[in-house]
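> example.struct
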């Protein structure tokens, strides 16, 4: 009996810090923000409970259009990160040697050694009208006048893919590393070619890692603020900017909290739809990736 009590106490002490972290830093702040989102200001320091902040969102096309645009751009970034990250992850997991694997992982980690702000300014130095790319093209005689590569959707997408691609590569490497090479050899021995083996064996096995990476990348992209604002400029229409505007510029915490929960609900709905389309479950995806 004493031994069982000790095991229970050890388990409690082991999970207590994690439970406190979840409750104090995630659950309670979200409950507080949800409470604020249901408040409607009707006078100086006078509030009423209701859904006015959510109704105002749907009554303003600029708000929900920006949310839809943010979601579609985030899905595009996720697809591009998957297309670029999958070959890298496969090479690291199945082809590269131990030293090469470590070097490749290090190269993927380098962008995370600096903050989002520094990474965004690095792209600005490359893409601005007087930046390295425009100056190099002029020096090579390919263009006559400077070209501004910033402040458009392409610049935002490049910056976001560069920022989040590691979060696609890591779960893919983790999943593919557990795949027995004999499965691939058997596919070739049974008459399959490269595309067939990829489609029938490799991708189905890597699906938990694909789904896990897509979830993380999509959530990080949809919630990004600095990269879309700095690289997109005034032409950027990102929903996090609308949330920032409500909280900081207008000091309307009620609408800002409502917008934050709408973003959370929208991204959760997209993830739920992705899980249904892929035939995966969140539990199996987390367990295998």
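> example.seq
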């Amino acid at each position: 009996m004493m031994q069982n009590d000790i095991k229970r106490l050890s388990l409690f002490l082991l999970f207590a810090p994690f439970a406190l972290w979840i409750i104090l830093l995630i659950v309670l702040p979200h409950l507080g923000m949800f409470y604020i989102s249901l408040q409607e200001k009707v006078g100086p320091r006078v509030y009423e409970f209701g859904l006015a902040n959510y109704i105002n969102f749907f009554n303003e096309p600029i708000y929900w259009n920006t949310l839809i645009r943010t979601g579609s751009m985030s899905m595009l970034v996720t697809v591009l990160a998957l297309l670029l990250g999958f070959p890298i992850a496969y090479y690291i997991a199945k082809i590269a040697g131990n030293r090469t694997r470590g070097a490749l992982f290090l190269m993927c980690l380098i962008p995370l050694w600096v903050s989002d702000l520094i990474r965004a300014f690095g792209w600005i130095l490359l893409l601005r009208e007087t930046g390295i790319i425009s100056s190099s093209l002029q020096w090579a005689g390919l263009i006559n006048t400077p070209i501004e590569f910033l402040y458009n959707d392409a610049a935002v997408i490049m910056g976001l893919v560069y920022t989040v691609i590691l979060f696609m590569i890591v779960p893919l490497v983790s999943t593919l590393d557990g795949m027995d090479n004999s499965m691939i050899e058997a596919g070739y021995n049974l008459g399959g070619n490269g595309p067939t083996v990829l489609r029938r064996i490799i991708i189905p096995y890597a699906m938990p890692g694909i789904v896990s990476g897509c979830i993380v990348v999509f959530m990080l992209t949809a919630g990004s603020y600095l990269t879309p604002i700095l690289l997109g400029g005034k032409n950027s229409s990102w929903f996090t900017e609308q949330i920032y505007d409500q909280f900081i510029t207008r000091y309307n915490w009620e609408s800002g909290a409502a917008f934050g929960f709408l973003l959370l609900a929208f991204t959760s709905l997209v993830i739920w739809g992705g899980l249904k389309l892929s035939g995966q479950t969140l539990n199996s995806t987390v367990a295998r990736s």
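> remarks
The two ends are 37 Å apart (CA to CA).
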